[in-house]
């Protein structure tokens, strides 16, 4: 809870308008209390920082955008509808403690809707030790519509299909993304995680 609360507080500082109502202020008050209590209970050495290394980091926007597949979509989105950034803050906060081993995410510091993801192929699978890179963009109507995901792959993956859901042209086919049959994205339930 310490990690989630601190992530929520940090992100709220950069997006104050998203929390400028009674629910938002209550959420931030609760996050402050959880953060304070956690720090008090779990830190015996106050000079030693609590580890938050969990596979997700924020980086300056210019470290992502030059090679980002959805950069034109991101550049055209100048204003975010109310609630969108708050939802992204909540989801990234969940990613801080919910990522599986071998999944690494970096998001743009000022644009939580811009992410690069690397998945290391799990042991004892045909994908073992492979590095699988994806670009993820949450469009204007997110979370009412699914994120966009582009498979960047590597040279081997770009010349031949090695998974039926990952195409050599970069298309990712999943029902949650609306690119495959089966249960679709559900705005109130589906998440990036």
What does this structure look like?
Strand 2 (103-108) and strand 3 form a beta hairpin. The protein is of the alpha+beta class. It has a 5-stranded mixed β-sheet, covered by helices on one side. Helices cover 31% and strands 15% of the residues. Helix 1 (2-14) crosses helix 2 and helix 1 (2-14) runs antiparallel to helix 4 (84-98). The longest helix has 21 residues, at 22-42. The chain has helices spanning 2-14, 22-42, 71-76, 84-98, 155-159, and strands spanning 56-59, 103-108, 114-120, 131-137, 148-151. The protein is built from 5 helices and 5 strands; from the N terminus they run ααβααββββα. It folds into 2 domains: 1-52, no CATH class; 53-193, Ubiquitin Conjugating Enzyme (Roll), CATH 3.10.110.10. 25% of the residues are buried. The mean pLDDT is 79. This is UBC-like protein. One of its GO terms (molecular function) is ubiquitin conjugating enzyme activity. Keywords: Transferase, Ubl conjugation pathway.
